[in-house]
C-alpha cells in the first residue's frame, strides 16, 4: 500500500485551501450562516462550478470527475479547517451516492449531472433523530428507525392511480430548508409487510413545509420537514435493498466526516498554538510553561492519530472490503472535541466569550457528536460488528 498522495490530490488540497483562506474567514462564516440559505451562494458556485467538488466521487458518465472517496475526504478536510458552511455533505456525500446506488437509469441521467455541477442541491431526510443509525454507524439500520410496523416518522401510500403520497414529519434534516431535492426515507407496507423505501420530493411540492431550525452549530443548518399528502417519486424499485445502500453510503460518509473533523481539529490546534505563543502571564508567554506544552503535545498526538485513521478509512472504502469508517469517525470526533475544549481553556478569558472564533469550533465538535455519534456508541457498534466480545473459547 502506497500511502503517499498523488500530485492531483495535493493540488485539490492546495487549491481549495487557497480559496478558503481568501473567502471563508470567521467573519465570512458568521455572515453566511445568517443568510436564508445558511451558506454563501457565491462560495458554493466557486466550489461547484470552478472546482467541481460535488461531482468529485461521481462517475464521469453522470457528469462527475470519477475520483474516489479519498479525494472527497481531502476536500472535506479543507472545508472542515475553515468550517465552511456548504451543502456538500448533504448533496455529494449523503444524497448523491444513494441516488447512484438505487436510482433507475432515467433518474441517474436526469439528476446526477445537476448534482455534480452544483446546479441542484439535495438533502437526506430520515425519521426522528436517527441519522447515525440509518447510516449503520451506531446500530443495525434494519431496526426500529425504519418503522417496524409502527406509526410515526413518514408513511408512504400509493394512490389508486399508482402515484406515491407521503405523510409525516422529519426533524434535523441537514440543509433541508434550502435543498432543491429531498431524498426521504418512508415506511410502507403496514405492520405485516413494513419496509423502508426512498423517495424523491421536489422543493415547492404541494403540501411540503420546510422550517429552518435553530441549532447548536449554525454552520450545519438543519430544518424540520413536514409532508402533508405530498406527491413523491420512488427511487429505483420496491425490491431495492435500501438498508444495504444506506450502510454502504454511511461508511463512506463516516470516512469523509472523519477527515472533515480532523481538518477542523487541526485548525483549532493551530489557532491555540498561535495564541499561547503571544499571550503573556507572569512576565513570559504562556506557551513556554511546561504544563501548557504537555497539553498541546497530547492534542497534537490525538489529531495526528485521527488523521491517520481518517485517511485509512477513506482509502478502504474503495480499495478494501473493510468498513472502518465508524471507528475513524469516533477517533476524529473525540480528537476534535478534546482539541476544541482545550482551545477554549487555553485562550483564557477571551476564549470564554461567545463571539470568539474558538466557539465556532467548539460548537461544531459538539454538534457533530450529537448528529453522528456519540463516540462510545460508534465504537460499541463497531466492536459488535467485529464480534470482539462474543463469548466462547479464544483460539490459541
From TrEMBL:
Its EC number is 1.-.-.-. Residues 255-383 form the Acyl-CoA dehydrogenase/oxidase C-terminal domain. Keywords: FAD, Flavoprotein, Oxidoreductase. Its cofactor is FAD. Residues 6-119 form the Acyl-CoA dehydrogenase/oxidase N-terminal domain. It holds the Pfam family Acyl-CoA_dh_1. InterPro entries: Acyl-CoA_Oxase/DH_mid-dom_sf, AcylCo_DH-like_C, AcylCo_DH/oxidase_C, AcylCoA_DH/ox_N, AcylCoA_DH/ox_N_sf, AcylCoA_DH/oxidase_NM_dom_sf. GO terms for molecular function: oxidoreductase activity. Coiled coil: none annotated. It is an enzyme of class 1 (oxidoreductase). Belongs to the acyl-CoA dehydrogenase family. PANTHER family: ACYL-COA DEHYDROGENASE, ACYL-COA DEHYDROGENASE FADE28. This is Acyl-CoA dehydrogenase family protein. It comes from Streptomyces xiangluensis.
Amino acid at each position: 500500500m502506497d500511502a503517499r498522495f498523488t500530485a492531483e490530490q495535493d493540488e485539490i488540497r492546495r487549491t481549495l485551501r487557497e480559496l478558503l483562506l481568501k473567502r471563508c474567514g470567521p467573519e465570512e462564516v458568521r455572515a453566511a450562516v445568517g443568510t436564508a440559505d445558511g451558506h454563501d451562494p457565491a462560495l458554493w458556485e466557486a466550489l461547484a462550478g470552478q472546482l467541481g467538488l460535488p461531482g468529485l466521487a461521481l462517475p464521469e458518465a453522470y457528469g462527475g470527475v470519477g475520483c474516489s472517496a479519498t479525494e472527497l475526504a481531502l476536500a472535506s478536510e479543507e472545508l472542515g479547517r475553515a468550517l465552511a458552511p456548504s451543502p456538500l455533505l448533504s448533496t455529494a456525500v449523503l444524497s448523491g451516492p444513494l441516488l447512484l446506488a438505487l436510482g433507475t437509469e432515467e433518474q441517474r441521467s436526469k439528476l446526477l449531472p445537476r448534482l455534480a455541477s452544483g446546479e441542484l442541491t439535495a438533502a437526506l431526510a430520515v425519521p426522528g433523530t436517527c441519522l447515525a443509525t440509518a447510516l449503520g454507524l451506531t446500530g443495525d439500520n434494519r431496526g426500529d428507525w425504519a418503522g417496524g410496523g409502527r406509526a410515526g416518522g413518514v408513511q408512504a401510500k400509493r394512490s389508486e392511480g399508482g402515484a406515491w403520497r407521503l405523510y409525516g414529519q422529519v426533524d434535523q434534516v441537514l440543509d433541508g430548508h434550502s435543498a432543491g431535492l429531498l431524498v426521504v426515507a418512508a415506511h410502507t407496507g403496514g405492520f405485516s409487510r413494513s419496509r423502508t423505501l426512498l423517495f424523491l420530493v421536489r422543493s415547492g411540492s404541494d403540501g411540503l413545509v420546510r422550517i429552518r431550525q435553530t441549532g447548536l452549530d449554525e454552520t450545519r443548518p438543519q430544518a424540520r420537514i413536514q409532508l402533508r399528502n405530498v406527491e413523491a417519486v420512488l427511487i429505483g424499485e420496491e425490491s431495492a435493498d435500501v438498508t444495504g445502500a444506506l450502510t454502504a453510503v454511511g461508511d463512506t460518509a463516516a470516512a469523509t466526516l472523519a477527515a472533515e473533523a480532523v481538518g477542523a481539529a487541526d485548525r483549532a490546534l493551530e489557532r491555540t498554538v498561535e495564541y499561547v505563543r503571544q499571550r503573556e502571564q507572569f512576565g513570559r508567554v504562556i506557551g513556554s510553561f511546561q504544563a501548557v506544552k504537555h497539553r498541546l503535545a497530547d492534542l497534537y498526538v490525538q489529531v495526528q492519530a485521527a488523521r491517520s485513521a481518517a485517511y485509512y478509512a477513506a482509502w478502504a472504502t474503495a480499495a478494501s472490503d473493510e468498513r472502518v469508517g465508524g471507528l475513524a469517525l469516533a477517533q476524529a470526533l473525540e480528537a476534535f472535541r478534546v482539541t476544541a475544549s482545550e482551545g477554549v481553556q487555553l485562550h483564557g478569558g477571551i476564549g470564554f466569550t461567545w463571539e470568539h472564533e474558538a466557539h465556532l469550533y467548539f460548537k461544531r465538535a459538539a454538534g457533530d457528536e450529537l448528529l453522528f455519534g456519540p463516540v462510545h456508541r460508534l465504537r460499541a457498534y463497531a466492536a459488535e460488528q467485529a464480534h470482539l466480545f462474543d463469548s466462547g473459547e479464544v483460539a490459541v
